[in-house]
Amino acid sequence: MYPPYDEACAFSDNSEPESETSYLSTFRQVYTVGYATSLISLITAIVVFTAFRKFHCTRNYIHINLFSSFVLRASAVFIKDTVLFADETLDHCSVSTTACKSAVAFFQFSILANYFWLLVEGMYLQTLLALSFVSQRKYFWWYILIGWGE
């Protein structure tokens, strides 16, 4: 693997400077608050979409699944942080635990699920557009030309 772990991690006997440690700690707190806020908002949106019968349609089912994938991602971030930062003395570059590998694999899966649900959302919207212009095919091609800037 390039670069070797020793070069990538570059652990030295000197401890990190206080300002860098403070910055990383603050950064971690900020994104934790951001993911927590996102998680609460997404769960609220899922509850609203499922609670009211008026909102039951294909578009909103796709939205619910997309929101669920974002909930999964926020949960994966919290799980990953819990596993990685549980023991500050552990060198994660040279020691790779099963819990660490599982947490990172779950995190990567959640990102993949986000992209696939975004793809499904785009495919659904494209299908709606294509079907609404089936009878007027020539206008549809104008939209394609305009959309690609030609």
Automatic annotation (TrEMBL):
Annotated compartments: Membrane
TM region positions: 30-49, 115-134
GO terms of biological process kind: adenylate cyclase-modulating G protein-coupled receptor signaling pathway; cell surface receptor signaling pathway
Gene3D superfamilies: Rhodopsin 7-helix transmembrane proteins (1.20.1070.10)
PROSITE patterns, A to Z: G_PROTEIN_RECEP_F2_4 (PS50261)
GO molecular function list: G protein-coupled peptide receptor activity; peptide hormone binding
Protein topology in the membrane: Multi-pass membrane protein
An annotated GO cellular component: plasma membrane
Domain G-protein coupled receptors family 2 profile: 27-150
UniProt main location, coarse: membrane
Record keywords: Membrane, Transmembrane, Transmembrane helix
The protein, known as: G-protein coupled receptors family 2 profile 2 domain-containing protein
Organism, scientific name: Perca fluviatilis
